[in-house]
Amino acid sequence: MKINFRLFLKITLALIIVYFSFVQSTSAQGGEHTGFYLSMGIGPEFGNIKGKDDTGTFLEVQGTAYAFDMQIGGAIRENVLLHGTVGVKSIFGPTINDVKLSDGYTVDEYFFGAGMTCYLRQNYFVSGNLALGQFSLVDESTQIGYNSDNGFSYQLKAGKEWWVSPRWAIGFALELGGTFVTNELTNGASEKYKGNRFGLRFNATMNGRK
C-alpha cells in the first residue's frame, strides 16, 4: 500500500506550526546524541529523471515530488551515529516527455542503504548515505507498472534540530541525492537512467542525550 504523502505532508506542516513557539522556548543547548537513533524526514522534492540509450535521450520525467526518508541505528561515539537508511520520492501525475499524466500515474524513486550522521554545536547536523536505488512507474487504475534494475544511489542531508523533550528533537534539513541505474536488455543493448533529487525536509529525531 502506498503512503499518502499529501496527507502526511499536511500533518507535518501542522506540527511545525503547533511546535514552533514551543521549540523556541524549550530548545536546549549542548544536547548529546547517544544510544539508539531513529530519524525521519518528509517534505517536497525537486529534480528530474532522464533515460538514455544508444540513440540518445528517450525519456524525461518532471514534476514536484513528495519525499520521505528514515534512518535507524545507534551511536558509535557521542554525536556520531551509524544507521541504515531507506527513502522514497514519489511524483503523482508526472510530466513524461512534455506530456502531463493524470494523478493516477506515479513515478517513484526508492533507495536503501547505510550511512553516518554527525551532530555539531547547537544541534546542527550533516548526514551522508550510500545506497541501492530503483525507479518505478505505476498506473494506479490497473496496478500495472514498470520497475528498473537496481543501481547506485546516494543521499546528503544537512540541517538543524531543536530539542523538544529529553528524547525528541525536531528541525529542518536540506537534501541532495541521485540514483544511477543501467538496465541490460535481452538484445544486448542497455538503457541508462539518472535521477537528481534536491529538496527540503521537516525532520524528527528520537535519540538519547545527557
Could you describe the 3D structure shown?
- By secondary structure, the chain is mostly beta strands.
- It has one domain (5-208): Porin (Beta Barrel).
- The protein is 10% helix and 66% strand.
- It is elongated, with a radius of gyration of 19 Å.
- Residues 1-5 and 18-30 have low confidence and may be disordered.
| Low-confidence spans | 1-5, 18-30
Helix content: 10-25%
Largest sheet: 8 strands, antiparallel, barrel
CATH architecture: Beta Barrel
- CATH top level label: Mainly Beta
List keywords for this structure.
single chain, 210 residues, mainly beta, Porin, eight-stranded antiparallel β-barrel, 1 helix, 13 strands, 66% strand, disordered N terminus
Nutshell version of this structure?
The chain is mainly beta and 210 residues long. The chain has one helix at 5-26, and strands at 34-46, 49-53, 56-62, 65-77, 80-92, 95-96, 99-100, 105-119, 124-139, 144-147, 151-163, 168-184, 190-208.
